[in-house]
Amino acid sequence: MFKAIVRAERLQSTLDSVGVLVDECKIHLDEGGIEIRAVDPANVGMVDLSLDADAFESYEADGGLIGVNLVRLQDIAGMADSDQLVELELDEETRKLHISIDGLEYTLALIDPESIREEPDLPDLDLSSTIVIEGRDIDRAVTAADMVSDHIELGVDEADGVFYVKAEGDTDDVHLELDGDDLIDLVAGEASSLFSLDYLQDMNKAIPKDAEVTMELGEEFPVKLHFDIAEGEGAVTYMLAPRIQSN
Amino acid sequence: MFKAIVRAERLQSTLDSVGVLVDECKIHLDEGGIEIRAVDPANVGMVDLSLDADAFESYEADGGLIGVNLVRLQDIAGMADSDQLVELELDEETRKLHISIDGLEYTLALIDPESIREEPDLPDLDLSSTIVIEGRDIDRAVTAADMVSDHIELGVDEADGVFYVKAEGDTDDVHLELDGDDLIDLVAGEASSLFSLDYLQDMNKAIPKDAEVTMELGEEFPVKLHFDIAEGEGAVTYMLAPRIQSN
Amino acid sequence: MFKAIVRAERLQSTLDSVGVLVDECKIHLDEGGIEIRAVDPANVGMVDLSLDADAFESYEADGGLIGVNLVRLQDIAGMADSDQLVELELDEETRKLHISIDGLEYTLALIDPESIREEPDLPDLDLSSTIVIEGRDIDRAVTAADMVSDHIELGVDEADGVFYVKAEGDTDDVHLELDGDDLIDLVAGEASSLFSLDYLQDMNKAIPKDAEVTMELGEEFPVKLHFDIAEGEGAVTYMLAPRIQSN
């Protein structure tokens, strides 16, 4: 069984965090909250999201698993004002999700979870550098890099103690360096990896500008981006595989 | 003769109410105010609009009839700020309408009224139910229904004393029930009719969110939507023909 | 050498003033400030822009000439908030312009000035009328004229002491008359010229609504539009060639 009430704003940001990577996903309805793990069709970007029962106005669940059309669910949640309450209730027999917003009832047919791409395991990586950075700085770097290239290098210069972003186009370059004073925190180890800008832009869309984002980086390794949602009662981790360095 | 001054906002909402259904219309320039009746090319949606002489800052007319290109007239009115005054004067000889906004003069060629689709008579129907509802609730229902279907059922359950909206899609459904407490007023009789969502969406665009809309409904009968404009010095009635119920 | 710091807003409006006419331009980096002159590919619209050294937070230059991709430079400047400072520094060896916004560094490859269309000389014309008018009145006239025609007549009636704008369409006309009271200033001589609306619309986009624009007009002569930027520490002059009067 699953029955919950949540502020529209929280539901919307939860769905958006996953929706930037996939159109359908499985949702685990655990006793302690919901969890979503998904990987994009090309196996390049992954997301692991949890939203605790405390993030809801009320929450009851006993461990089910549902498959949903995220695009449709985002549209429905988007009809509510951010402060409105959204009621969710699973009808186990018909496999439909009843969504109710101030008297308006929406019945959403669920998708067989078996038919949805398998959930990824986000590997535990031992990455050399940890950068804690504001969402708005990621946004600036990604926006600028997009003007010159379709990939972006993220790295840390251990000796200088700086985190850097580089994008090299055919004629123009973009470069950003942030040291310990510009960042919320920096644990510097030698690190440098190249990423597809498309994916990073999608993830960037879901990162609030005022979020504290913990970024873990290595040498030609995936990057992990971690930030809290729902005032700390939920969390999102993105992982993005590197591209092979072009020389 | 026709000579009038009106606040831009009032002219704009008047024209928009008719413009959602037709591109050209006839305007009756009566002593007591203007009146417009029009029906869309498919004969499905009708509008009857009146704007009293009192809704104008000044008004003089003696019963003429003009034909106008509504799209063009909406564009012209749209150039004015909502608080600006728009002066209208008919040149009977040249059959042109002079529109003046803060010194800017626009000369609009009129259309021969004979060449415009005949005006409809909105029939007097004896409909079983009367629902008085806020414009914003119509907006919610229409927006949600559009997510699942291209038609919408409006009805009243006499026994339960509720007005309901239903839309059924291939997989998902939308349902809204409003009882006497949720509505401004309800005179309940058995009623249920199916309508094309396209038309209702167009009419919805012209209904202010805070308007009190009087809706009259019957069993497989047209729906009538009536609301005031210009702080009660004008009124709009829409009538929409039903679709045949699909079973 | 060239090294300067300028508020983003000033750089943006400077680039926009030229960008409405051309995609590439030469920039003179003189001791006293920068100067740009450009003519559109059809040789119909010209711009002469100067921005004094005092308009910059800091400025050092010794007379160089660079060629830039304006579209690209506008994009870069557009990333900054209007109050942010933009640092510009020319690397003479690599012929690249370094643009730095709050730590973000953009390296822009310059264009060989020889490859850019030759700079025009804005001729000194002896025009009969001078009209000083608010930017917002130009905007109203141009917007209204565009509804009926693709050209616009600007003129002065010396006897009546009025500046007028006329646009004649196939069926509708637009007319605006402004006398000495409606204008900031008027030196009336007989004047009347016809212009392409496209160009005037482009120029209009770059004219602030609250700018005092000095317009010089003659009989079938080009029009000159002059206004200050950067609180008087810069200036823009547009010149637009007339069309042959159609009779």
How would you portray this structure in words?
Three copies of one chain form a homotrimer. The first copy, chain A, is 17% helix and 46% strand. Chain A is α+β, with helices and mostly antiparallel strands. The first copy, chain A, folds into two domains: 2-115, Proliferating Cell Nuclear Antigen; 129-240, Proliferating Cell Nuclear Antigen (Box), CATH 3.70.10. A nine-stranded antiparallel β-sheet of chain A has the order 6-2-3-4-18-17-16-10-14. Chains in contact: A-B, A-C, B-C. Chains A and C meet through helix 3 and strand 13 of A and helix 2 and strand 9 of C. Strand 9 (104-109) of chain B pairs antiparallel with strand 13 (173-179) of chain C. Chains A, B, C: Homotrimer. The subunits circularize to form a toroid; DNA passes through its center. Replication factor C (RFC) is required to load the toroid on the DNA.
Quick overview of this protein structure:
Chains A, B, C: Residues 7-99 form the Proliferating cell nuclear antigen PCNA N-terminal domain. The structure is a homotrimer of 247-residue chains. By secondary structure, chain A is α+β, with helices and mostly antiparallel strands.
